[in-house]
Design brief:
alpha+beta, four-stranded mixed β-sheet, three-stranded antiparallel β-sheet
Length: about 250
């Protein structure tokens, strides 16, 4: 089963839903993660990953992408600071980097500070032998809800638009290891649709059959070219005969 987060204003319990099957079918009724008595869904005790893992470092893809895009956008800016804007383009190490030879980054440009993403992560550890769905959801969901305004702002910037409206319904599109992909709730259904049935594989031909068909294609092309040459020669003869008749009439 898959989980999807719903609007932030639907409450902590109601904001988490469980799909009834691996693939979303149009019209399928989502099941609440928490029951009326507050107990979690049966899927909550399942392993988050297969094979099971004991911990998971969670990042948010749009947060990481925004820092990368910001750096790309300001890569070619004028390097000379203006007297009016001394911090027009400021470089230096990462704020918490105390190494002897730290990596130098673009810290500020065009009056904007670099949107750091390195410290936006959450470490979720299993309490017993493997990380369960409930342990993951219980830690990650409130963490994401706390940064909802930031997510709306960043998702808008990544698309070259203002922040998404506060009423936007967001969803975690997938829970794969690494960065969480967050987008409009309606995209969750599209991402989890049943894949189309693949077309049956064509019959495999033997080496002899492939060779025979290749020879047939070569012979067919040769015959076509030969007919074209014959037609061209016939047309040339007709043109020559017409020219001869015209010359005879002139005499």
């Amino acid at each position: 089963m898959d989980t999807a987060s719903a609007p932030a204003d639907s409450g902590e319990h109601g904001a988490i839903q469980v799909a009834p099957s691996e693939y979303y079918e149009p019209g399928a009724v989502m099941e609440p993660y928490f029951g009326p008595d507050g107990s979690p869904h049966a899927v909550s005790q399942a392993s988050l990953m297969e094979p099971p893992v004991s911990s998971q470092t969670v990042r948010v893809r749009c947060i990481d992408s925004w820092e990368e895009l910001w750096a790309d956008q300001h890569w070619g800016c004028d390097a000379d600071p203006s007297p009016l804007y001394p911090n027009w383009r400021r470089r230096g190490p990462r704020p918490d980097d105390e190494t002897f030879e730290p990596t130098i980054y673009l810290l500020e440009c065009c009056g904007q500070k670099r949107p750091w993403a390195y410290d936006t992560y959450l470490q979720v550890a299993a309490q017993v032998e493997f990380l369960t769905v409930h342990e993951f959801v219980s830690a990650v969901h409130p963490w994401l809800m706390a940064m909802r305004d930031t997510l709306l702002d960043v998702l808008g910037k990544l698309n070259g638009h203002p922040p998404w409206p506060p009423e936007t319904k967001l969803a975690v599109l997938d829970l794969w290891p690494g960065s969480l992909r967050i987008d409009h709730e309606d995209k969750w259904a599209r991402c989890h649709r049943r894949p189309p049935v693949p077309r049956p594989a064509t019959e495999q031909l033997s080496a002899e059959e492939r060779s025979r068909k290749a020879m047939e294609r070569v012979m067919t092309m040769a015959a076509v070219k030969e007919r074209a040459r014959e037609e061209e020669a016939r047309a040339a003869e007709m043109d020559k005969e017409i020219d001869s008749n015209i010359s005879a009439n002139r005499i």
